[in-house]
Amino acid sequence: MWGTNLRIVLVVLGTLALYTLIANKIPQVQSEVPQTLTLGPNVTTEQLVAAGEKVYNGAGGCTTCHGLGTRAPNLLTDEKGQGPIGARCGRREPGKTCKQYLFESLDNPTAYVVAGYQPIMPVMTRQLPPEQIWAVIAFLESQGGTEDVTGADIPASAPPSPPGGGGTGAGGVAGGSTDPMTLFRAAGCVGCHKIGAEGGNVGPDLSHVGARRSAESIRTKILDPASSTARGFERFAGIMPKTFGTTLTAAQFEALVRFLAAHK
Amino acid sequence: MSDVLLALQAAADTTRAYGEFPVIGARGAVWVAAEVHLMFAAFVLGVPLFAVVAEAIGVVGKDQRYDRLAKEFTRLLLVAYSATAIWGAVLTFLLSTLYPRFWAYLTAVFGPSMWAYVGLFFFESFTLYLYYYGWERWHQGRSKVVHLGLGVLLNVWGTIVMLIANSWLTYMMTPPRDITPTTDPASIKLWHAIANATWMPINIHRLIANVVFGGAIVGAYASYRFLAAKTEEERAHYDWMGYVGNFIAISALIVLPFAGYWLGREIYQYDQSMGITMMGGFMSWLWVIQAFLIAVLFLAGNYYLWIGMGRIPGAERFRPYTKYLLMVLVLGAIVWGTPHTMIADARELAAMGGSHHPLLGALGVMSAKNSAVNLMILTTFLSFLMYRRANTRPVVPWARTGTWIQAGMFGVAALVVLYFGIKGYFVEAIVRIGYSVYQVGAVLACIVFVTTIDILMGRGAQSLGAIRWGKMPARSQYALFVLAVTFTWLMGLMGFARSGIRQHWHVWQLVQDTSKYAATPALGYAAKMISACVLIFLTLVAFVFWLGGLAEKSTFVPSSEKREKEGARVGH
After folding, report:
1. What is the mean pLDDT of residues B159-174?
2. Which of A26, A62, A240 to mutate to test binding with chain B, by most B CBs within 10 Å of its CB?
3. Rounded to a whole number, what is the distance in Å from the CA of B334 to chain A's nearest CA?
4. Who has greater pLDDT, B264 or A162?
5. Domain of B452?
6. Contact assignment for A226 to B342 by CB distance below 8 Å
7. What is the mean pLDDT of residues A199-214?
8. Mean per-residue pLDDT for B422-449?
9. Nearest CB partner across the interface for A26, out of B224, B288, B530
10. Is the pLDDT of residue A157 over 60?
11. A222 and A209 in contact (C-beta within 8 Å)?
């Protein structure tokens, strides 16, 4: 009987050892906690690049999509013969430097969606503090290009701006404007939703949203995007920012709600 | 100062938020306590399901073997319940001393449900005592039905207990969206917190998984008793018990992925970034490990069946086919385990020559993987069917036609799976996802209709000889051990996936983990923790089994031996 017991123990331990060994042989990826970077105006380019690489591969979560080449272009390798992102970023949009293009891509990702990919990238300026944003830009520039981010860029970008780069705070977006269409563009709604001929198709077309929803329902949906999901858009659930209640002023918010409710 | 401000002030104070535990740290201590408690909980929820169904089969089919089987397992439950409660207490004390602030938050939201939980545990325990100790007293007639009712009631209490505990952990993953970090936890309506987005999918998933787990542990117990058996009669009984355990585990396993699919869908709908983290983010390699484990389950389950056919007269006619079944299983496992959507750094991408391996990239996509797993399920079902029919020859006049119809159904199901698998390469992802429903539908329809035909065709079938229970080589029993260890390890791995996707949040986007253990560890560390937990659990379960044998002799004390002893006494 002792022989049988020993064989059972060996089978159990052998099975456990095999699974543990395999799990330790595959690439080890740990989910990092976002950390505050203290990069002052005197930070060197090398420090920025090193910090950016850490954010890119860790807390920024960039590799979740950009490390695959299926959900988003892989930024660290060649893309259609144009080289890695540092080499191609300066040629992506006429009149924009690499640095400008990269910042806008992080600040308003739906503005420049590479053909063949879905506009699913979240607004990174909402997710990461300015130091980390600029560190990531410096790191991306270093991938085949010239790093020209300096410490001077960092304070210039604070506080983080909403999609469209309109600025936030007590004055709301778009300099406090209450013109609904200006708000619709400045708040970034246009990146996902269409009104008339303008806008993206990540979210439902809002040209006739007033016929489907009451003003109260629109208000609720903007403040709490997860409260409901339009049929056919389930796969994009969770993408809409939940922050419009704080980034828009009360007057702007109500102007936008009335504007949308009137689109019957 | 309002309560909210007090709560905010408390939130800012991280110095009293966490305690420390020697050697393995606070996270490690809670991990082990939670995982081992969960494994015992799955055992004490899965086995009563198993026991009451076995008792019911015994009553309906008037087969005493099932009744004895049910009683034997209920006896083990008595000790296992204590172990579950002890580990539950360990977990509670560790949480309240190592994560006091988080624990205070949970109790503020769920306090009343915790009282109900404890109350139900009393009902559950006393129902179990009545169920076990009343077995012989209420063993026939109407009283047997009452006894069976006690078994059902035991399962009802157990399921409610599980539903309550599930609400706590699912709230940590998917708290309702209207709750913000500044919401006073005491102001959150209890039912609102309970009925969160993943509560019901987890309930269903765990219910099925408990049946799988119960079956696997029953199989391991039976194999141990088989190997230790001293008489043919005892060996025959535990051989039969092992078969029943394996049958239940594999049958329930086949439907488990659908419950998992629903859970995954709910996670994506709740928060896309959480879903991406789970399937394509830092956890993407986990699914390759999972594919390997499930391949082991399929191979070990089928291997056990094929060896088992050696003790069935008439099974020889099916044996030549097993090598083809093995080929399908191995190829399916290779395709399913092909890595594809993985995070890779620049060096790895350069070594691979692109974002995917040039040769294997095409096999790693969902079209290929879904096709592979569906064909593996069909193959396993075919093994069961051959096993089932091995010692019978149908005598109904339409037997030949029926067999051809069955073969046709297998063929059609395989073709549907392959057709949509290939077509999936040429359509967009959103269309491709829909194809998996057609593939699964074809396989399930095949299983249901082929089984129905088989049952009808088996009426009055000619027997080619009784199954020679007990005539199994020892290696078959080790396959059952591998199944039990793998199921348990898989449970630990999936627990890590479910819990790990919260990353550095105790409660997703509401209560942040600011301890030094906030980063979610890589798979290597997780694997060591899982193996440690499985080892602790299996060691304790082995102790429970041993105690079960110590407290009461097996109900299968061989009658021949008894007669010999009695004869010897008479002779003296």
Report:
1. 96
2. A26
3. 15
4. B264
5. 313-342+360-466
6. no
7. 80
8. 83
9. B288
10. no
11. no
Number of domains in chain B: 1
Q: In this model, does residue B3 exceed pLDDT 70?
A: no
Confidence (pLDDT) at B177: 84
**B417 within a domain of the structure (yes/no):** yes
pLDDT at A126: 66
The strand ranges marked E within A137-252 are: 194-195, 198-199
C-alpha to C-alpha distance for A203 and A263, rounded to whole angstroms: 16
**Chain A contacts of B285, Cβ < 8 Å?**
26-27, 29
**CATH code reported for the domain at A45-157:** 1.10.760.10
Q: How confident is the model at residue B42 (pLDDT cuts 50, 70, 90)?
A: very high
Q: What is the pTM of this model?
A: 0.75
Task: List the single residue in B341, B518, B522 with the smallest CB-CB distance to A28.
Answer: B522
Scanning A121-160 for CB atoms below 8 A from B yields 122, 143
Across the range A252-263, mean pLDDT stands at 83
Domain positions in chain A are 45-157, 174-261
- The single-letter code of the amino acid at A13 is L
* Residue among B228, B268, B430 whose CB faces A4 most closely: B228
Residue identified by tokens 């006494």 is: B569
By mean pLDDT, which of A60-64, A146-150, A206-210 is the weakest?
Answer: A60-64
- Whether A45-157 and A174-261 share one fold: the answer is yes
Question: Nearest CA to A15 among B530, B494, B212, B334?
Answer: B530
Q: Are strands B392-393 and A198-199 parallel, antiparallel or unpaired?
A: unpaired
From chain A residues 197-226, the ones with a CB under 8 A of any chain B CB are 224, 226
Q: Touching check for A90 and chain B: CB below 8 Å?
A: no
More confident residue, B5 or B378: B378
Whether B189 maps to a domain, the answer reads no
The Cα A102–Cα A87 span in angstroms is 12
CB contact under 8 A, A34 and B276: no
SS3 A93: coil
Instruction: Say if the Cβ atoms of B343 and A29 lie within 8 Å.
Output: yes
Q: How distant is the alpha carbon of residue A248 from its chain centre?
A: 20
Contact list, B228 vs chain A (CB under 8 Å): 1, 4
| Residue of A4, A11, A18, A19 to mutate, testing the B interface (most B Cβ within 10 Å of its Cβ) | A19
Q: What is the pLDDT of residues B204-242, one digit of tens each?
A: 999 999 999 988 998 999 999 899 888 999 899 999 999
Task: Spell out a b/e string for B189-215, using b for 16 or more CB atoms within 10 Å of the CB, else e.
Answer: eeeebbebbbbbbbbbbbbbbbbbbbb
Tokens of residue B131, six digits: 């169920």
Question: What pLDDT is recorded for position B484?
Answer: 94
Between residues A115 and B458, which one has the greater pLDDT?
B458
String of DSSP letters for B397-459:
TTHHHHHHHHHHHHHHHHHHHHHHHHHGGGS-HHHHHHHHHHHHHHHHHHHHHHHHHHHHHTT
Neighbours of B503 (CB within 10 A): 23
ipTM value? 0.86
Q: How far is CA B332 from the centre of its chain?
A: 21
Domain A174-261 sits in which CATH superfamily? Cytochrome c-like domain (1.10.760.10)
Q: Which two tokens stand for residue A211?
A: 């016929």
Q: How far is CA B192 from CA B171, B178, B196, B266, in A?
A: 10, 10, 7, 17
Distance between CA atoms of residues B261 and B67, nearest Å: 36
Choose among A30, A61, A226: nearest Cβ to B520: A30
Q: Does residue B116 have a pLDDT over 60?
A: yes
Q: Helix (H, G, I), strand (E, B), or coil: what is residue B520?
A: strand
Mention every residue, 6+ apart, whose C-beta is less than 8 A from residue B283: B277, B497, B500, B501
Please give the interface size between A and B, counted as residue pairs whose CB atoms are below 8 Å apart.
165
Q: pLDDT (tens digit, 9 = 90+) per residue, B292-318? A: 998 999 999 999 999 999 899 988 888
Q: Is A6 an interface residue toward B (CB < 8 Å)?
A: no
Subunit contact B281:A64, Cβ cutoff 8 A: yes
